[in-house]
Design brief:
This protein has 567 residues and is an alpha+beta fold. It has five domains: 106 residues, Roll (Chitinase A, domain 3), CATH 3.10.50.40; 106 residues, Chitinase A, domain 3 (Roll), CATH 3.10.50.40; 105 residues, Chitinase A, domain 3 (Roll), CATH 3.10.50.40; 106 residues, Roll (Chitinase A, domain 3), CATH 3.10.50.40; 87 residues, Recoverin, domain 1. Helices cover 15% and strands 31% of the residues. Strands 1, 2, 3, 4, 5 and 6 form a six-stranded antiparallel sheet that branches. Strands 7, 8, 9, 10, 11 and 12 form a six-stranded antiparallel sheet that branches. Strand 2 and strand 3 form a beta hairpin. Helix 9 packs across helix 10. The longest helix is centred in the N-terminal third of the chain and has 15 residues. The radius of gyration is 47 Å and the shape is rod-shaped. It starts with a helix and ends in a 6-residue tail after the last helix. The relative contact order is 0.06. PPIases accelerate the folding of proteins during protein synthesis. This is peptidylprolyl isomerase. InterPro entries: EF-hand-dom_pair, EF_Hand_1_Ca_BS, EF_hand_dom, FKBP-like_isomerase, PPIase_dom_sf, PPIase_FKBP_dom. One of its GO terms (cellular component) is endoplasmic reticulum. It is found in: Endoplasmic reticulum.
């Protein structure tokens, strides 16, 4: 209130009623003292408006004749249409909600020369202390103010949607009557189906998840003449401060957003595939409820088989290795009305930001891509061959695991001897020296569900291999094979000093001579001396340090007797 206006009213009061100037005569009009005016006044009471207010009524000597406070109920009525005494009709016009006024009503604008029997004497001047609580008009509409709105809003609330929102509810004067926050849970309901007051049904339409609104609802779109219990008086306008947490429609399916799809994508996941992926799971308001990253471990599962919520079963269909995808899952395809634990509320929409690390099918073979194959390649690797090769091993997301280049020499292995994972063994077959390949090895041909040191469980592995050299192998169970028929007098030829016993040095010299002359070959190995020593130990059956004629036997003969692996 401007200082000049207050001075003018006080001057008027002084002129009309100050004892120092004597009694100038009866008041001609109501005297108004606006002793409190709120800083924000969105509207002023006009003729024909519905209003609610509290008051104390007294005589000049301070004696109370009436009070809405004493009755415990506000006064509601229409201002300026003759339903109130004239002085009140005039004194209430122009008031703001929460404004306080002192009114002095002369008799002719009050109850006149008749008064009110037993309550107000004739020709009484009335003093009212009034606070305005509510103003509305039958022509009012819903008042919606957007307080904040997220930058991204792909969808807004429509009729028949199911919404979850927080709210603070107050009367127009700021008196709180209800709050979802105090209950510790959102208010969950359908929109446009009559489950809400009309004003809220209308006020929630068009909202985005995460949006905040102030909604002012006139009584005829709220609880009207009856009010609600003891907290909402009759004819009360309601103010709701609303935060929309999430919403969905019972007809919704899974919504997919492809944030990053690698190129090329040679294969997409289908039902029955086993997928390893990282994810962050959030509610629609951004609240994180779970994350595989926090556990530093991927989530591993089959898709399309019911091992995960239906929405994720659907949402992971068609993913590529390395793809980043957002999967929005409505509650009926997630955890439904009951939610899960203390982090996923009932009827919550879930958002999964997924990064697919790899996937495979239990029926997958090794995938072989030849990067380079020398011309004129006639000799290729077979089982039992001894090979030297270089390799780089990584996960499909590019995470480097191992490399032979970190060591001084290539990797060495006898193929088919169960010394490397099955998938790598298969990928090294039918290679030429100098050939380079990329091998994609599914876990059932790799390190399986348990993984290995440095290799996660159920991981698909990528090998870059280059064959450096190869040596022709020997059949399984053999340490040495003849290129032709063995000598008929084998023992005599092996017993170099003809003393009737073959010690280790004579045995070694004989075998090395056979290899050097091309008459036979040893099982390929990086340590041929050890191979010869193993052969001698197998033939020296009584372990006395020499082989006798009775002890020496060919492998072909041993196979029939099922005794030892030997020559």
């Amino acid at each position: 209130m401007a200082p000049g206006s207050r001075c003018l009213l006080l001057l008027l009061l002084g002129i009309l009623g100050a004892p120092a100037l004597g009694n100038p005569g009866p008041l001609e009009d109501v005297v108004i003292d606006r002793y409190y005016i709120p800083k924000i006044c969105l509207r002023e009471a006009q003729m024909g408006d519905f209003i609610r207010y509290h008051y104390n009524g007294t005589f000049k000597d301070g004696k109370k004749f009436d009070s809405s406070y004493d009755r415990g109920a506000t006064v509601a009525g229409v201002v300026g249409v003759g339903r109130l005494i004239t002085g009140m009709d005039r004194g209430l016009q122009g008031m703001c909600v929460n404004e306080r006024r002192h009114l002095i009503v002369p008799p002719h604008l009050g109850y006149g020369s008749i008064g009110v029997a037993g309550l107000i004497p004739p020709d009484a001047t009335l003093y009212f202390d009034v606070v305005m609580l509510d103003i509305w008009n039958k022509n009012d509409k819903l008042q919606i103010t957007t307080v904040s709105k997220p930058e991204r809003c792909n969808r807004t609330v429509e009729n028949s949607d199911f919404v979850r929102y927080h709210y603070n509810g107050t009367l127009l004067d700021g008196t709180p009557f209800d709050s979802s926050y105090s209950k510790g849970s959102t208010y969950d309901t359908y929109v446009g189906t009559g489950w809400l007051i009309k004003g809220m049904d209308q006020g929630l339409l068009g909202m985005c998840a995460g949006e905040k609104r102030s909604i002012i609802i006139p009584p005829f779109l709220a609880y009207g003449e009856k009010g609600y219990g003891t907290v909402i008086p009759p004819q009360a306008s309601l103010v709701f401060s609303v935060l929309l947490v999430d919403f969905h429609n019972p007809k919704d399916g899974v919504f997919l957003e492809h944030l990053e799809v690698p190129e090329p994508c040679k294969r997409r996941a289908v039902t029955g595939d086993f997928v390893r992926y990282h994810y962050n799971g959030t509610l629609m308001d951004g609240t994180l409820f779970d994350s595989s990253y926090s556990r530093n471990q991927t989530y591993n599962t089959y898709i399309g088989k019911g091992y995960i919520i239906p929405g994720m079963d659907q949402g992971l269909q068609g993913v590529c290795v390395g793809e980043q995808r957002r999967v929005v899952v409505p509650p009926h395809l997630a955890y439904g009305e009951n939610g899960a634990g203390d982090k996923i509320p009932g009827s919550a929409v879930l958002i999964f930001d997924v990064h697919v690390i790899d996937f495979h099918n239990p029926a997958d073979p090794v995938e072989i891509e030849t990067v380079f194959r020398p011309e004129g390649c006639n000799i290729t690797t077979r089982d039992r061959d001894f090979v030297r090769y270089h390799y780089n091993c990584s996960l499909l997301d590019g995470t480097r695991l191992f490399s032979s280049h970190d060591y001084e020499k290539p990797q060495e292995v006898t193929l088919g001897a169960n010394k490397v994972i099955e998938g790598l063994n298969s990928g090294l077959l039918d290679m030429c020296v100098g050939e380079r390949r990329v091998l994609i090895i599914p876990p059932h041909l790799g390190h399986g569900e348990s993984g290995a040191r440095g290799v996660p469980g159920s991981a698909v592995l990528r090998f870059e291999v280059e064959l450096i050299s190869m040596e022709e192998g020997v059949p399984e169970g053999y340490l040495f094979i003849w290129h032709g028929e063995p000598p008929a007098n084998l023992y005599e030829q092996m017993d170099l000093n003809k003393d009737g016993g073959i010690p280790a040095d004579e045995f070694s010299t004989f075998i090395k001579t056979q290899v050097a002359e091309g008459k036979g070959r040893l099982m390929p190995s990086s340590d041929p001396e050890k191979v010869i020593a193993d052969m001698f130990q197998n033939q020296d059956r009584n372990q006395d340090g020499k082989i006798t004629p009775e002890e020496l036997k060919l492998k072909s003969d041993e196979d029939q007797e099922k005794i030892h692996e030997e020559l």
